[in-house]
Structure formats: structure tokens, C-alpha cells
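Let us practice reading a record.
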Amino acid sequence: MPPELWDIIGWDKVGHFGAYGIQAFLLLWGFYRIGWHHPLPAILIAILFGMTMEGMQFAFFPERYFEWADVLANTLGAFAGYGVFKRLIYHLNF
């Protein structure tokens, strides 16, 4: 990757992507086990949680700020978690 692009993405965004992917996957799995087979609630919870955390870090921590790039990484991670979950459900027939 060119250094300019890596400066935009960075390890921070990769961490957000991975963490929210795992969160969405676990929410989807839990909802699926109790009989909720629609993915929208789990994905929305993950996205709204990410936005809430960004807002809270801006409001309560003076050295931190709200980043739309973090929200985007969280959102993309949530959808990636859904993609992985959908593939596993399809292939493993939980």
C-alpha cells in the first residue's frame, strides 16, 4: 500500500473494522440462536453502538474526538461480520 493511503487507513481503522465485525457476528449468532433470523437488528445495534462510543469519547475525554472515518470502519466491519456469519450459516447449517 502507498504510504499516503496507509496514513488514512492506519491500524486504528483496521482495529475498528475487526472489533465491530466480531461484535456484529456475535450479535447475529446470539439472535439466531434465540430464533431471530433477520440480520438488521444486530447490524443496527453494532453501528449505533459505534456511533455512541464515538460521541461519548468526544464528550467525556478532552484529548479524544469524534471521527467519521472510525464510524465508517465500524459500519464496514459490522457488514463484514454479517457476511462471515451468512457464509457460516449457509455452509454449516446451524
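A brief commentary: The longest helix spans residues 3-33.
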